[in-house]
What we know:
Helix content is 18%, strand content 20%. It has helices spanning 61-66, 141-157, 166-169, 183-190; strands at 17-18, 21-22, 26-27, 33-34, 44-50, 90-92, 98-100, 107-108, 115-116, 119-120, 126-132, 162-165, 196-197. Strand 9 and strand 10 (119-120) form a beta hairpin. The chain is globular, with a radius of gyration of 16 Å. 39% of the residues are buried.
Amino acid sequence: MTNAPEQRPPAAADGLWDGGWYRFARRLDSPNFGPRPPDARIDLVVLHSISLPPGEYGGDQVQQLFCNTLDWDAHPYFQSIRGTQVSAHFYVRRGGELWQFVDCDARAWHAGVSRWRGRERCNDDSIGIELEGLEGEHFEDAQYEALAAILAAIGQRYAIGHIAGHEHIAPGRKRDPGPGFDWRRLRNASGWPDAQFAA
């Protein structure tokens, strides 16, 4: 059993959510998740970037990675991540297509060793969003639009107070989404004037 999230007024999320599943995302269940701690406050969104192999877009390898079905022998790079079991709550493709892999009330495995707002283990109380992309490269207009939409929906269900990149919660270990991500654009589009953005 997972803990109940801190809720916004119920009417605010009507029609958007089925429990912790966003109705307007393509659902593909990952086995890589677990319960959040009973006292977890879901108040952080962590943004990542990912492409498999790095810099190649359009395939299904990310979905396969999150569902433990990736063919490790299909590309030499995959040997370096062989056996990895990871997930994120959401994945935004280059064209803006949105996928969901883990119920937002549950703990996805996206942050790893991490610290933010004075707390360790950011997986415990965050929602992870992966953007199809590469550290240092730009992201597409459709991705910013989809990201703004899902952030608005998340903000109606959860009391989010912080938005950070993987690079901020695990500095020196991770660098995504990287300098190609436009944090100013996200702040302007998010409609979250009270949220604390890491950049």
